[in-house]
């Protein structure tokens, strides 16, 4: 089958690899109908992967049709139309306090993973995907949700929503969103849904700021952000900051934009282990700082009704549709922000 494989820095190739089979009795195989390129895939593309492997299939966002299941799968059958959770949950032990208390996400023996980071779990940018623990990691595409919306529910929208929830956004709060890629723009939408009174949207790309303004946000050039937001808030700065990039400079900017008692939420991947958190500044401002990866499945119960009822419209950020065989070009466009590229969807 065809799959996009990582071969080195800025070297993603469409190759022929063996078709998958269920990993064990709890697994399934899904025929991919659409998959997405995520901003975190660019870390791999830039040669800053999460393992020393190469030649593995990349990607962690997909929707499709089940073509094979293991004998232990209870909730799905061949032919079901499904969406994959990017955060792979292998299942709780069932006996620890968290599992007994109804919170398997906190299971003491829980194993979590993600597609497309190494050969340990091949990625979703392929004609077919082996899904482990299918009952935990698949969902039927809900009635009233389109395939495009379902694809964005596999990672991007839950991540944006988690980022906003972790920033303590609520009615009347002022918010800054730093980084307006697809997830940052979805965070702008989520912030308003959660009750934000004003959202400042920051990005180096002017066109992305214009798009954020069309969602109701106040566009801000990062070069002048501290002074401008200080002026617009009468010196108070903002109550909540969503930092969607993960770079040192954007983290520093997020802290500078935060007012007293503010909450900063960061979910961009920062592989710089030497970042210095300004503890004294945080102490003086009484800041709350949260960094988290997204447990996709846990946000579906809240997000699906919001999408179904058009309160959130993540599909509006899809700008390019390309064939899997053109994956190398898709990565080039996405990485370079060429031709207004935001969300790229690939099909077999």
Instruction: Give average pLDDT, whole number.
Output: 93
Number of structural domains: 2
> What is the CATH topology classification name of the largest domain?
Quinone Oxidoreductase, Chain A, domain 1
Q: Mind describing the biggest β-sheet?
A: 7 strands, mixed
Instruction: State the distance separating the first and last CA atoms.
Output: 10 Å
Helix content: 25-40%
Ranges where pLDDT stays below 50 over 5 or more residues in a row are: none
Q: What is the topology?
A:
Elements: E1 2-8, E2 11-16, E3 28-36, H1 41-45, E4 62-69, E5 81-84, E6 87-89, H2 97-100, E7 112-114, E8 128-131, H3 134-137, E9 138-140, H4 147-153, H5 156-166, E10 174-178, H6 182-193, E11 198-202, H7 206-214, E12 218-220, H8 225-232, E13 238-243, H9 248-257, E14 258-266, H10 279-285, E15 288-291, H11 300-308, E16 318-323, H12 327-336, E17 343-347
Parallel strand pairs: 10-11, 10-13, 11-12, 13-14, 14-15, 16-17
Antiparallel strand pairs: 1-2, 3-4, 3-8, 3-17, 4-5, 5-9, 6-7
Give an overview in words.
The chain has helices at residues 41-45, 97-100, 134-137, 147-153, 156-166, 182-193, 206-214, 225-232, 248-257, 279-285, 300-308, 327-336; strands at residues 2-8, 11-16, 28-36, 62-69, 81-84, 87-89, 112-114, 128-131, 138-140, 174-178, 198-202, 218-220, 238-243, 258-266, 288-291, 318-323, 343-347. With 348 residues, the chain is of the alpha/beta class. The chain folds into two domains: 2-155 and 295-347, Quinone Oxidoreductase, Chain A, domain 1, CATH 3.90.180; 159-291, NAD(P)-binding Rossmann-like Domain (Rossmann fold, 3-Layer(aba) Sandwich), CATH 3.40.50. The strands form four sheets. Strands 3, 4, 5, 8, 9, 16 and 17 form a seven-stranded mixed sheet that branches. It has a six-stranded parallel sheet with strand order 12-11-10-13-14-15, with helices on both faces. Strands 1-2 form a two-stranded antiparallel sheet. α5 (156-166) crosses α6.
């Amino acid at each position: 089958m065809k799959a996009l494989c990582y071969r080195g820095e800025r070297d993603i190739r469409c190759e022929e690899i063996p078709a998958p089979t269920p990993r064990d009795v709890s697994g399934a195989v899904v025929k991919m109908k659409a998959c997405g390129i995520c901003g975190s895939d660019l870390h791999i593309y830039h040669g800053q992967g999460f393992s020393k492997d190469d030649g593995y299939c990349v990607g962690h966002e997909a929707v499709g049709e089940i073509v094979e299941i293991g004998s232990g799968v209870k909730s799905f059958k061949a032919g079901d139309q499904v969406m994959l959770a990017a955060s792979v949950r292998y299942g709780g032990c069932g006996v620890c306090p968290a599992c007994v208390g109804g919170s398997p996400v906190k299971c003491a023996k829980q194993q979590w993973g993600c597609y497309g980071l190494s050969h340990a779990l091949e990625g979703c940018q392929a004609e077919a995907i082996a899904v482990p623990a299918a009952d935990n990691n698949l969902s039927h595409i809900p009635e009233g949700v389109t395939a495009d919306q379902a694809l964005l529910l596999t990672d991007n929208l839950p991540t944006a929503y988690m980022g906003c929830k972790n920033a303590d956004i609520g009615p009347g709060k002022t918010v800054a969103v730093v980084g307006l890629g697809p997830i940052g723009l979805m965070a702008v939408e989520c912030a308003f849904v959660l009750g934000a009174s004003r959202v400042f949207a920051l990005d180096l790309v002017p066109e992305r700021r214009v798009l954020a303004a069309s969602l109701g946000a106040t566009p801000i050039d990062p070069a002048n952000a501290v002074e401008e937001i200080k002026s617009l808030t009468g010196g108070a700065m903002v109550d909540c900051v969503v930092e969607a990039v993960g770079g040192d400079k954007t983290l520093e900017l997020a802290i500078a934009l935060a007012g007293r008692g503010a909450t900063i939420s960061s979910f961009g991947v920062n592989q710089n282990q030497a970042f210095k958190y300004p503890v004294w500044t945080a102490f003086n401002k009484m800041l709350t700082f949260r960094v988290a990866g997204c447990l996709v499945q846990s946000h579906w119960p809240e997000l699906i009704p919001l999408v179904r009822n058009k309160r959130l419209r993540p599909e509006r950020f899809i700008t390019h549709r390309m064939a899997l065989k053109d994956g190398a070009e898709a990565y080039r466009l996405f990485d370079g922000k060429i031709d207004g590229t935001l969300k790229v969807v690939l099909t077999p």
